[in-house]
Amino acid sequence: MSGDYDLVIRGGTIADGTGAALFTGDVAIKGGRIAAMGVVSGSGTEEIDATGRIVTPGFVDVHTHYDGQAVWSEELNPSSSHGVTTAILGNCGVGFAPCRASDREMLIKVMEGVEDIPGVVMAEGLSWNWETFPQYLDVLDAGKRDIDVAAYLPHSPLRVYAMGERGAKREPANDDDLARMRAMAREAVEAGALGFATSRLSIHRASDGSNIPTFEAGVTELKAICSGLSDAGSGTFQVVLDAFQGWDKEYPVIEEVVEATGRPVTFTLASANDGPPRWMAVLDMMKKTNASGTQVMAQVMPRPIGIIQGLDLSIHPFILCPSWQKIVHLSVAEQVAAMRDPALRQALLTEEPEEGHPLATLGRNWAWMFALDNPPDYAPSLDRSFAALAAARGCTPQEIAYERFLDTNGEGLILASLGNFQDGKLDAARTMLKDSNCVPGLGDGGAHYGAICDASYSTFLLTHFVRDQRDGGLELAEAIHMLGQKAARAVGLHDRGVLKPGAKADINVIDMNRLDLHTPIITRDLPAGGRRLDQTASGYDATIVSGVIIRRFDESTGARPGRLVRGAQAA
After folding, report:
1. Max Cα distance, the chain (Å)
2. pTM for this one?
3. What gap in Å lies between CA 464 and CA 486, rounded to an integer?
């Protein structure tokens, strides 16, 4: 029997995404849009009783790397398991288009190194039925998936496509190169690119250890490409500044691009775990830039930025030890058995790590390493760090890590908090999130499959800061504003992130009492049997995309209403 509406959500506590006060009411949906709110007298073909639940807009994740997963998979998890209904691809300037057949292997190595996606996964999973960026967008447009996606034009493939081998070898772009990249940027935006993305981060390396094509690309090049956005009259510039140089020292790059092109900018920002709070100066710099009328928004991770270590993952404290090479080929169970041998134990506990991938070299920062158990605690007290535990026991941190693996039969996980955990607290992260020029981000869904699983940050924000009121807490209305309207507008999307008549019907119905993060698990569901970290949650009664329920009580319904969002929208 058909009703007046396709779907009516009844009696929920509505956080409309704008930051306005909560209210109790109904939400009616018809034709993929919100048709009515408040007291809805008509009936729905389907109805959801949201009594005792919160009703929110779907969340917009501004920083993901589902460029490949959106091609080979219909589900963009973990993100869609955590209330995300729109994911932005192409961040950090890495991706798969534009690309000639002869350059595929090089781009795979870049993505393998920068984003920890096994090369075999991409080689088998990507259809490569595109060459230009507009053609890649057409492939995304034709695919089925649970949530919406939008994509930046990534700098590394653009540079190589425009300059050939000279671009891959990081030679300076000449005037003809700049003109070609500018024209291609305009073409991409006119075809539906959300903007242009690049990386200046020194640890972003290809899998062979070489610098990525865009590392140290001149500001003149960035200005030329962003001028292509200006030519098209649309598009956001996304950039990862080099944190190791300091965000405050790197920020003038943004100022130069803004002054030359007037395009809006979004970039990543975090606090260091110790030392001077340089992020505070960046907040002041953004305020000054935005006073001129251009939008610059920082993406801030709501919890510590870190990596997950384990014997069955890409990184662990002993992976660069020479003696580990004797057992690297064994199964985890066989590795654990070998680790019980006193001679190997002595070697691994005393050897100095060799050179390796930059992320692997960060895997021994003992003062910021913690056991990650069930339930996962992403903001543990510093007396639980491996350094503190070792000091209390009179042993080395290496022994704490070693015993962690033996005691859990090799299944134990270790959280290494690399940043955003200033003095062992999340006060700085909270301050940044509350700033008018910052949005939650950096979940990195679809990347770092064997080292990072931060796409669950929305659930963490709602449990840690809102429900449990830890680290100063946040009000529910402001948290939903951060995850909804504020995030959407940061990347030029104005038809979502809010609940109001006429808005796109992307909606969450959440049981805050039941909301919980589960411990990350290792699955092997990527192409070629590739391994990845996944993380689910409890408490999402329903997640809705364009009026269609894609998840019900934390399980997929199999519905695939997700579509490609072509470009920014007028405010």
Report:
1. 75
2. 0.95
3. 20
Average pLDDT over residues 124-133: 94
Residue 440 domain flag: yes
With beta carbons less than 8 A apart as the criterion, state whether 367 and 387 touch: yes
Does residue 161 sit in the same domain as residue 293? yes
Q: What is the CATH number of the domain that holds 210?
A: 3.20.20.140
Q: Is 564 among the domain residues?
A: no
Find out whether 27 and 14 touch, Cβ atoms under 8 Å.
Answer: yes
Contacts of residue 203, defined as CB under 8 A and 6 or more positions apart, other chains included, come to: 244, 358, 359
Residue 200, pLDDT > 90, answer no
| pLDDT for position 105 | 87
Tens-place pLDDT, residues 407-417: 999 999 999 99
Residue at 170: amino acid letter? R
530: phi then psi, degrees, rounded to nearest 5: -60, 150
Q: Average the pLDDT over each of 64-78, 113-127, 518-532 and give the range with the smallest value.
A: 113-127
| Triad 549, 555, 559: Cα angle to 5° | 35
Full 3-state SS string of 460-497: HHHHHHHHCCCCCCCCHHHHHHHHHHHHHHHCCCCCCC
Yes or no: say if 7 and 32 are a contact pair by the CB < 8 Å rule: no
Residue ranges making up the domain that contains 169: 59-303+422-486+499-556
Location of structure tokens 């992403």: 378
Distances (CA, A) of 149 to 107, 190, 543, 552: 21, 17, 16, 21
How confident is the model over 416-451, as pLDDT tens digits? 998 999 999 999 999 999 999 999 999 999 888 888
Task: Output phi, psi for 57, to 5 deg.
Answer: -65, 155
